[in-house]
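Changelog excerpt

This revision adds worked examples to the README so contributors can see how folded entries look when concatenated. The first example is reproduced verbatim below.
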Amino acid sequence: MSAASKETGIGMRLALDLGPLAVYFAAYSWSGKDIFLATGLFIAATALAMIVSLVRYGKVSPIQVFSAIMVLLLGGLTIWLHKDWIIKIKPTIYYVTVSTILFWGLATGRPTLQMVLGQAYPGLTAEGWRLLTRNWAIFFIALAIANEAVWRNFSTEFWLGYKLWGSMPATLIFAAANVPMLMRHGLAADTPKVAVPPEE
């Protein structure tokens, strides 16, 4: 595969992962801060991203399916019951669930993170995967705590701003911060340096 094809593939993956969130933020802003309309469009965008992923790649990862089900269920309840706190706890549930799965993988010796990220880190040793899994599991717990602190103590607008300018950049920075450790444990020097588990 050419470098251009790889870049296109990475760009498409990012668009599928982050596109629904971008729609959510834009809809909230353009609708006059109507979180219920934004949530409805978030559900639609998530469903579309799943369909595109299935058509283009022929599969959808279990964790992406889990995230989409959460969007449909909690987003639907948010609109139906007209309670915005329901969609606000979605990141917390997602982060705690994924962290639990990763810790379970560590405890049982199963490469759960490797299953999610696939071939993103070729050459990485078993010890490298173990350390990366541990790091992400702890990081996701920290994100869950942060999400609870923000939505419970600040406005909806601040919470959305935190997700866009806080948790998402923090996730990318955290992924990049793991690179030196990964390279000490077999990661090829020419491998794309930042790969993250699917965002909530």
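The second example, added in the same revision:
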Amino acid sequence: MFIGHFAPAMVAATHPKAPGLGTLFVAGQLIDFGFFGFALLGIEKFRITPGFTVMNPLDLYDMPYTHSLVGSGVWALGFGLLIWLLTRNRTGALIGAAVVFSHWLLDLLVHAPDLTIAGTPPKLGFGLWNYPAITMPLELLLTFGALAFFVLRTRSTAPRSKLALVLLVILLLAFQIMNWFGPEPEAADMGMMVSALAAFAIAALAAAFVGKTRTLKTA
């Protein structure tokens, strides 16, 4: 799951008290922001194992602080607390926390068994990455169904609104195509980790641009 992690963000953004779309895009990938950041520091680890799953060579064998159920809950609570401290918006804080936690639930669908409850076995994962005919349309349906939901419940507030939406769609498609069909990484090196972090950040910036050009429709 890559761009599918942004689907909860786009649905959540239609709530009147939700944080901005860019903030929610950060929430949707916060767990992976943390994972690749920790991997750069050697705190969590992964390796490239060709054929590990049909769609993905990432052997995510050591990630107790980000991809355990407890760890994800801590990240969600921390993000929600940060939103509350900055805005005093309790509902917005809960929404942000829920979007962060959705990451673990979506990963549970596609990962090979590498997720945990609290960092130790048993390891969990339904392994849909081994079934491209299911995973690929599911990811596109989740992502662009959520985007359509967001667009239908908002209205443009700026002439550049269509441009912002087109840019977001192009970026999401480009990132997913690279993820699916680009050359497999040869090693779990710094370049790969930084590229992943950059992709998450660029998507969040594009989402923030969309969010600033649209507002919720009134009843």
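Reviewer comment on example two: DSSP finds eight helices and four strands in the chain. The two ends are 34 Å apart (CA to CA).
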